[in-house]
Amino acid sequence: MKHYIFADESNTDKSRFMLIGGIWIDELTYQQVITDCKNFKIQYNWSENTKFNWKYISKKTLQQYCQFIDIFFKYNLQFNCIILDRKEINLKAENNDPELGFYKFYYQLLRQNSKPDIPYYIYLDRRNNREPTRLETLKNFLKMDTHPINSCGIRIKDKGKNIKALEFVNSETYDLIQFSDLLLGAIGYHYNKRHLQPNASSHKSEFANYLAYKINKNSLEFHTSKQGYKNLNLWLFKPTKTYAIK
To answer: Which CATH class is domain 3-236?
Structure first.
């Protein structure tokens, strides 16, 4: 059975915490989810290509945004995210190339949360790259066998992933990237403490608080073990070594 990953990034400006994350989903569940999303948009007279985006949350749209993200929780979809603290991580550290640094962490997110024998079709929200070969390089590294040393000092074999496709897409036509955008936006909002600023958007604060309520948390500023918390896996990255993508 096919499996899909729909991923995005958030807070890629000078915010302290930058996030990369996505939804892992099997083909059968995906078909059910996109049917629900289509029916939801019809119900509220939204265009089929309506883009639900963190930056568009307003007083007028808040209630429907909450109902839209409820579809994510209805199916208990798996969201995996890597959170990077810029006080501890310098994306320019590798050859003074922040774009390369960014894709090293995309590599970590995708590799650590994917199984070796499952065929993956990976769709990333479109972004402009200085180097046009970044995606092909990322795909090749994900497929490559590695031989890391574990905590006991023993070299182990890490089989590469079965990557069938890795593409940039327009998030307007992929509802699950829109889910990722909303989750990343809300988590980053709490991590970067924007909800505490004097000019904080009350509507974005309400949406972030709604997500926290859905998972029985007071805040989205938390991180998880390897197993994650409920259907959210928030990996607060702690640098210990250099990761390979060149």
So the answer is: alpha beta
The ranges assigned to domains in the chain are 3-236
Q: Which residues of the chain have pLDDT under 50?
A: none
Distance of alpha carbon 66 from alpha carbon 44, whole angstroms: 13
User: Which segments within 47-138 are labelled E, that is strand?
Assistant: 78-85, 119-125
Of 19, 5, 72, which is closest to residue 214 (Cα–Cα)? 72
What does the chain come to in residues? 246
Starting from the edge strand earliest in sequence, which strands make up the sheet with 232-236, in order? 162-169, 119-125, 3-10, 17-26, 78-85, 232-236
- SS3 of 209, please? helix
CB 80 within 8 Å of CB 235: yes
**How high is the pLDDT of residue 223?**
95
Q: What is the pTM of this model?
A: 0.92
Pairing state between β 119-125 and 232-236: unpaired
pLDDT of residue 148: 66
DSSP 246: -
Residue 37 CB partners (closer than 8 Å, separation 6+): 68, 71, 175
Beta strands in 149-197 (DSSP E): 162-169
pLDDT at residue 243, rounded to an integer: 53
